[in-house]
Fold this protein.
Amino acid sequence: MRCYPTPTAWVAPRACRPHRRWHCGTRSERGTYRAVPGEAPGQVPGVRGHMMSTGLRRVWSARAALVGLSILGLVTVVLIAGAAPPAPTGLQSSTHPDPNVYYVSTTASLTWDAVGPEPSVLDTAPSNSGGVRFFGDKAFSLGIDPQFEIYDVSDPSAVVTMGMAAVGSATNDLVTSGDYAYDAAGSRGVLVYKVDNLASPVFRRQVDTTGTGAWGIAVSGDTLYVADWEDVKVYDITNPELPVYVTTIDHASDFALDVEVAGDTLYVAAGDKGLSCYGVEDPDAPEYLGTSTPQWVGELDVEGDLVYGAGRLAANFAIFNVADPTNPTQVATVPVTRVVGDVCVWGDVAYLAFYRYEDQPAEIVALDVSDPTSPKTLRRWAQDYTAHAYGVESHGTQIGVGFTGSGFQMHQSAAAITPTPLGYRATTFAGSCVSVAGDVAFLGTADTTTGAQGSIETYDVSDPRSPGLTGQFSALDAVHDVAVDGDLLYAAVDHFGLEIVDASNPASLTSLGSCDTSWYANGVAVEGDVVYVSDYYGGMVAIDVSDSTAPTIIGSHDTTETHGIDVDGNIAVLANREDGIEILDVTSPSAPVQKGIFNPNPGTDTNEAVWDVDIEGDYVYAADDMYGVVVVDITDPMNPSHVATISTPGFARDVRADGNLLHVAGYNSGVTLVDITDPHTPIVVGTTGGAGDVVGIESCGEIVFAASNSYGGVDAKPGLHTFDCASMPSIYSYSVDTSPTGTPDTVADTIEPLAQVTAGYGDNYFHVRAIEHGVWSYSGAATRRVRVNTPPVANDDNYSVTTGTTLTVAAPGILDNDTDSEAQTLQVVGNDPATHGTVLVDSDGSFTYRPDAGFIGTDQFQYGISDGIDANSLATVYIDVTAPVVRTVTRVGGNARFDVAANLARKGWDPANTKAWTGVTHVIVANGEDGKEADPLCAAGLAGAYDAPVLLLQTAKIPTATKTVITEIAKKNPGVKVHIIGGTASVPDARWNEIRAIPGVSAVKDRIAGADRYAVSAAIATRLVSLKGSAAVPGVILVAGDNTAAFYDALAASPASFARTMPMLAVKKGSIPGSVASVLSGSLKGKPRYSASSATYIAGPAAGATRLTTSANRYTAASQIAGTTIAYGWVAATNTGLAAKLPDSLTGGAFLGNSGGVLLFTDSDSTMQAASSSFITARKLQIQNGWIFGGTASVPTAQETTYRNLLK
């Protein structure tokens, strides 16, 4: 809803653009205006007499109709201009039910937002995002976790995950160049990835930058610049996979946190020294240029002659003018109380990403920087009280935001343009063209029925919501184009050529003279004393109008069929319908010379043709009918080149460029707006229907005027239409007062919250009014009742845990005994570290705590709570850490491997040896004979999914120990399902028949098999995914299936496979078998991959995977795998197994995975392998149960003794 008060006058924020169609100045050179002598300062060029108005200025605009009061970012109070304030309904906190009272903190702040639709979250991709970088329609989310993700954002409302790369550290910054991405990875330096396949980035090289850490990175041509914390490193990337060190820029600051390159200038975020500039025309020898005044700058965005600097590590935001890089000058700073993590700029809007701080949320703030010396707050949104907003990056009408915890998000931009209909004036004939000068619009019309009549109508558009007809001039034929030059109007009148009209009195237009151009006059452009007419088959005609009563043809140029025309200094461009555009040199109007031609769609008919053109600098924008708008570079007029094609709705018939915006008249599609800040990548930023067939268009500030005819379309409304195309809400100042009847004082706008609530508990009343351009929107004030909240109360808590173990407490946890008098939902909003341990606390009160190694006693940590409005003082959690139980070492042996497997099943699933087998409803069996080990090798993950023991049998029989265990389980758990791993060559059907005959065993045969060991592993993985669901499978472990020496690595990784229910897939050293590849590209597509072996056993197939070990030595590999999987949190050292023989450990992974343990290897000598003994020594305080698999012939008694001694 848009409401307007009755204005006394309309004033525009900026004057109408001096379009060449009504400009009467001359040009000293292309692209530079020279004012008309005698023109008053501030006068629009070429507008004389009564038309000296500076254009349209709005007392109350369409976008200023609504304003809002935001309290802690949770509520918006809507005030409607020209009407009484609405009733206070729906004003409540997010957790309190009272609709009449809004509860706020005693330290609450009030902020104003301009209200239109709040920028919406289009989609979210869960991740721990630390920043965003866009490259085309792909987004890189810079990970706080040791990885970065890649997303397809071609549809921003449906973000698609494409791939990820495990970096091993946080990604501080990232830039792409061709098929390569360069990752500023902190202490790891620069990581080079090949990203020609974005679904699977391939790591190529690590570049040690030798400094404290790579924080920022930029590419210019073949040069890479790295902000390496205390200096800047320069690298040659002619070979993109092999950056070559060139030099170091050791600048005066102690910090180099970000770098940006624009042209030949390098900009460095120099921490506490501010902004530093270097000339890099020769990258081998950067030249110091200058540094700004000292202040903290850690993140940069360069836009033209302005650099926007965010603190990144500090609460600061500043804008610098770098027109002279030897003297970068701060032009504005915005007081902030929180860290500004990132900044990006699109158009006249700067977006700031704020960290969370105390009771202030993380959020995105949009600033109007159209006047960079005085930035104003437009909008605050995306508020998050649990995360930090680390990064923000613009992507046309969307922005990407990186939040820690809540992930990568795509948002609608606060500056997205929605052309809003303002006014309409119907005409007798169809509108065909429009031109605007000051407060007057000149509309050309045509009788589309007979084609034999037309007119020029004048409208007072001082209030474009209600165009008022002031005059009318009847023409002899259809009027196809009009151009205003001072007091004169030039009209292209179909069969009758050029008509010159005295427009000094818009209410009474008078003909001065005319010139028959012989064919059909379609377009007109004015340049000095010459008018150029596009005359259809008559080509272009140049007419001397120095005597407006006697216009004379002085030159012409033949074309096949021309419609539109534009002239810029000595260059004329013709829209030659199906023959494209033609560029002429009109230095001598009497003898135009063709310079070049460009046809965007050769060979098409007249329904697919160029109708109109507009010259803007070195570019031509051509309305190309059904193809939209074509952008052509005419820097070299003899060789025009295609730059971009803009797909627009309907059929493009007219175009006008105005600054960074292109306005397109759409036949059967209304008005379309395009951001042409970068003509090479134009972006459609707004469109509207409802104007029928728009064939003519003109812009004036934020107002667009459209001429519509009556052809087709359900919304066909012939005449003059006006649209509000403001790219952002207007800026408001406001006032607030706590007195119910007092007169409030005006408060200046700022980026930070205002109007501190200082009253005590109870009701307070706030009166608000909106103001724009010095005029109040209404005389009254809206009153809102605000009750100051009673803070919640946090109470101390007590827990206990055994040293070396982890205490896990579920929600509500530490919140369980905390209270709130208003019964609002409580959450934990922060905690201090534990004194003698590591604690992780979630907002719902759940937490995990692990004491430091060897600590016994009382530990503590403090936490704070919030009811969504107030936080209280800290409460303390006391944790009694007790001594551990006596550590044991237990041997699980047997006469053969089958006995060992059976005994491991007992220890794991019937630890009290009561034959109860509680909860065991599944059993997995596989052949354990020599040469058959490959089948059970990959079974651990499936065993974890079923929570099942793994037993071994022989081809010819079921060993007694195996059969005994199955019999006991079936007796206690009738219907137990036995799953067979391997084909009939490994486990014949005769063995299944023996198993089925055991009382209590399910009669349903379940054989998981394949053509070979690789297919068997693929079948196991497929079953696991079907059981758990793809979302519950966190990754896949690759194991070497073609080398028995690497089977030990697979077994070392099997406890993690069981514990995390991650499938293990068998691959070859140099290739991935087809059956496995199908699973990896199917149900496991996009899942993180981990290699259980070094490159000695798995080479090519491990590309893109994280290696759990780098050693080919089985003993070292096992200890590395154990350490890595513990570090990932998959398993723990609580139960640590030791084996020497492959057969004894075949089912050890399932046993240890069941208790979240790890598996080490030794040999059969009397001395334990050094890698294993070192692991046990380092983690002896974590190990509660040591296990030895196999008899004394396998692991001698001496090693068992050693194990016990190591745990003492």
Q: What stands out?
A: Confidence is low (pLDDT under 50) at residues 1-104, 106-117, 727-740, 742-784. The longest strand covers residues 762-772. The radius of gyration is 38 Å.
